[in-house]
Amino acid sequence: MIIAIEKGLEMLKQQLEDRGYKCFYIGEDGIADAIIYKDKDNHPYFQVNNSPQYTSVNNRNTGASGALLINAENKTIDEIIDILNRRTYSPLF
User: Fold this and answer.
1) Is residue 33 within 8 Å of residue 12, measured between CB atoms?
2) How many CA atoms lie within 13 A of 62 on its CB side?
3) Which of 6, 45, 81, 93 lies at 20 to 30 Å from 27 by C-alpha?
4) What mean pLDDT is reported for the chain?
């Protein structure tokens, strides 16, 4: 799983990398399965998976797009990993 992380969450990025996740900072060119941010007012996540090259290739080959958004505020690393593993904030049923 590839994760885009907002700058300022360096400690979280390191913890995820230590557990085997591939991470890059929001604003760097990359395609992410999940986006972790903290600054709700800045909306930095719009920059991820938004390049024309990604959009045209992804839609043509798989028909799927998008990434899981996770607000890191008041969440532990274990809670974030649980969200990543389930790909949702809470169980559906």
Assistant:
1) no
2) 7
3) 81
4) 80
Q: In angstroms, what CA-CA distances link 57 with 19, 85, 93?
A: 29, 26, 34
Query: Residue 31's Cα: distance from chain center in Å?
Result: 9
User: Which residue, chain included where needed, has tokens 């797009």?
Assistant: 65
Q: How many Å apart are CA 80 and CA 91, to the nearest integer?
A: 14
**Residue in 52, 11, 8 with CA at minimum distance from that of residue 31:** 52
Distance of alpha carbon 86 from alpha carbon 35, whole angstroms: 14
Half-sphere exposure of 52 (CA within 13 A, CB side): 0
pLDDT digits (tens, 9 = 90+) for 53-62: 444 444 444 4
CA 73 to chain CA mean position, Å: 14
Count other C-beta atoms under 10 Å from residue 26's C-beta. 20
Q: What are the residue ranges of helices labelled H in 1-93?
A: 10-18, 52-61, 77-86
**Does the predicted model carry a pTM greater than 0.85?**
no
